[in-house]
Amino acid sequence: MLPGLGARDVVAAVVDPEMPMLTLDDLGVIRSVTEDGGRVAVTITPTYSGCPAIEEMRADIAGALTAAGYGPVEVTTVLSPAWSTDWISEAGRRKLADAGVAPPGAAAAAGPGPVPLVLDPPSSVVRCPQCGSPATEALSRFGPTACTALRRCTACREPFEHMKEL
After folding, report:
1. Within 13 Å and on the Cβ side, how many CA atoms surround 128?
2. How many CA atoms, within 13 angstroms, populate the side-chain half-sphere of residue 140?
């Protein structure tokens, strides 16, 4: 084990495979990290249940802990409660904006029961991460990852990604 570096610190530094400007901790997918005599148990909640990067996240977490001298390592995925963009840290939101990705606004409050399917586009104002203008337009509700959309600023004309509120 690396001196002075706890298992939680090691896990907190693992980078998200789809959005490398963020750590998994910034993204809020790390639910818990417990250690007992070198054995480490990590619980994560992916950004959505069909996340294609979940196996890579698990492998990256286990690899980082093993490289730091921990073992054995167990990474468990839990889907409840469902991940929300509200779990992204303030540092993560700044890192998204610095990378040219508009961070999400506050997610709609979820009530008990199933999540309603909403087909209308979100009504929130999305500020341009380049110039800060609120005058932006949707180009596509789907971006390079499942949790982003493509937008363009009508003030500076720059295209950008927006992390959708979930």
Report:
1. 16
2. 11
